[in-house]
Amino acid sequence: MGDSGSLLNSIGLLLLGTFFTFAATTYWFRRNAAIREAERLATEHQKVLDRLQEMEVKFATVNQAIIPISTAFQAILIKELTHYHTPRMDDLLRKMGPPNLLTPDEEIELERGLRDRTMDMGPLISDSERDAALILLPVARRAKIEATKLADAEALRLRLVSIVSVVGLPIVVTEPDP
């Protein structure tokens, strides 16, 4: 029985060693795969952050371009309308800005004056001036809204929210405020 006990011990130790080798190999293989996956996710996350930063720069550039375009268009319309010989209307048009310094009562007075300019007044008003009188108020409202939105910097700020899945459970990670 000495030889068979020794043989069984050898086989047992061989199986035990094989099991531990398999377990250690599986552990290290999965650990290395998890590390590679974490590195891949970190790289992808950095790409998303870089893309977001690029988009924020473009968004800020667009906002800076749109506000002046609206304001410039408003100035062109005001210039078109101020050649008419009505000093009160010219004063109100100058107060349109930027910045817009009209009071609510003056806005109503300006609106009435512009409405009068859209009427047929013969050679006193050109078709171009009629058109300018029609579209000035909507353009001015748009410029005012955009200026208000630009002043509210929090509304324009984008935030990145990442959703990472770990073992099937989603984890939401929000980037900290700068």
Name some characteristics of this structure.
single chain, 178 residues, mainly alpha, 5 helices
What would you say this structure looks like, in words?
The protein has one domain. The chain has 178 residues and is mainly alpha-helical. α3 packs antiparallel against α4. The mean pLDDT is 80. The radius of gyration is 36 Å and the shape is rod-shaped. It has 5 helices and 2 strands. It has helices at residues 2-81, 87-95, 104-118, 127-151, 153-156; strands at 161-166, 169-174. It has a two-stranded antiparallel sheet with strand order 1-2.
Q: In short, what is this structure?
A:
The chain is mainly alpha-helical and 178 residues long. Helix content is 75%, strand content 7%.
